[in-house]
Design brief:
- The chain has one domain.
- It contains 5 helices and 2 strands, in the order ααααββα.
- It has helices at 2-6, 11-19, 34-39, 41-58, 93-105, and strands at residues 68-74, 85-91.
- Strands 1-2 form a two-stranded antiparallel sheet.
């Protein structure tokens, strides 16, 4: 079961993960959204796929790709309590692709 979970993904599996991410979700810290990856997949797809495969080969994700920032977005005008905010996470698309692959395999 573990070997299936950690096996190196195919190009098709990576592409399916990329295109299953909502293109309008919050971008990563680099400013790129999943919509960018989807729009320019024919140009960047092979490089992105090689990065994702490398993660599965060496089990190490660059600290820059692993950074996530949490921001609190107000639900109402002039919030006064923490419950009046909603958290939003800014993760890199590479991180989201890896997470998609792993969750689909689970």
């Amino acid at each position: 079961m573990n070997s299936q979970l950690t096996s190196i993904p195919s190009l098709l599996e990576i592409q399916e993960a990329v295109f299953s991410i909502n293109p309008d979700k919050a971008p990563g810290l680099d400013g790129f959204s999943a919509g960018f990856y989807q729009s320019f997949w024919d140009i960047i797809g092979l490089d992105v796929s090689n990065d994702i495969k490398l993660f599965f080969e060496i089990s190490n994700l660059s600290s820059r790709l692993n950074e996530t920032h949490i921001r609190m977005i107000p639900k109402i005008a002039s919030p006064r309590r923490v419950s009046e905010y909603r958290p939003i996470a800014f993760c890199t698309v590479h991180y989201k692709i890896i997470a998609k692959i792993l969750t689909r395999r689970l």
